[in-house]
Amino acid sequence: MGAHISDSALDLLKRIPGFDVGAYLSTIDELPERGIRINTLKIGVKEAEERLEKIGWNLKNIPWCDYGFRADEGSPGNTVEHSLGYYFIQDAGSMSIPGLFSLNERSRVLDLCAAPGAKTTHLSQIMRNSGAVVANDAGSERIKALAMNVQRMGAINCMVSHTDGRNLPKWGKARFDCVLVDAPCSGLGQVRKMGKPGKERAGPEKYWPVQKNLITAGFDCLKAGGELIYSTCTFTVEENEAVVQHLLENRNASIMKLGLKLKHCEGFVEGGGVEFSREMQKCARIYPWQNGTDGFFVCKVKNG
Predict the structure, then answer these.
(1) What residues pair up with 228 in beta bridges, in sequence order?
(2) pLDDT tens across 196-226, in order?
(3) Selected catalytic residue, list 65, 158, 233, 283
(4) Do residues 49 and 99 both lie within one domain?
């Protein structure tokens, strides 16, 4: 499968300081088992385990998520339990992100680029369906999947919004306690997709202008002292540290410690001949071979 990686993608990966291209290709050739997140809004973890094991599933606990499992089932979307919203098919690594917020049952949360709803419904689950989650997405087709998953998972504290996230600050003075910007990106960390033949993927130059606008818009929706998490499923400096640096230079933002339970590397303080804030070391780069997950970048900032 690794043979399907395009030359342009390989060139991007080789530009990343210290990136182990060989380990990356090996991860693609030996894909990790899929992850599922048990939806405790609808069913207890033990009951869900028993139901799935009864139909022949072999489940393995995910250490950083009490209700997350790896499953060797080939078609996890074709079960009654999935239709009932008892679990969400989700990369094991992405389950670590929503819990990084300082959430409580009164929190007001904005998921700026929410479709298809994995992190949105996870936020509702953590908040026990209290408070409020605004799930926004700009894509006409993606919004359908988002709305369907919100309904399927029983996330009744969630409101779906369909607009370009860059426009949300213009709507008024709504201020959120937490904002998630899981930005569209070049997707180099999505090992399942990278291993499949297909059309050439767009490079970082397509995404970083939008990402800079999205992170700024998301920050402008925060109340004073609020938290923003910026994440991507890619590794290029242009889409990660450079985007966070843009926010630091244009808003009163400060980078916070993450407390991730996954193996990870620190964010870069230099890349492509450009120096970044030393605080960028508080960001995290999670590579596929470290935890057997998709790869991603994550940074948490505070307003003020």
Answers:
(1) 179, 301
(2) 655 567 889 999 999 999 999 999 999 999 9
(3) 233
(4) no
